[in-house]
Amino acid sequence: MSNRFRLDPANGKFLGVCAGIAAKFDWDPMWVRAAFVIGTLAGFGSAILIYIAIALIAD
Description:
Strand content: under 5%
Shape: globular
Order of helices and strands: HHH
Largest sheet: none
Radius of gyration: 11 Å
Structural class: mainly alpha
């Protein structure tokens, strides 16, 4: 089994980035999504750019 990060669109809400991160580290996807929302609000939207960059770079 590969230990690489992969998008998980089957379990994801939008593009599968948070679900992929959660699967990689064996976390609950809800907490990863919450962290992205908090990061977006606290960072004035910079987490959205990070999310899109991960979605474009990851396979």
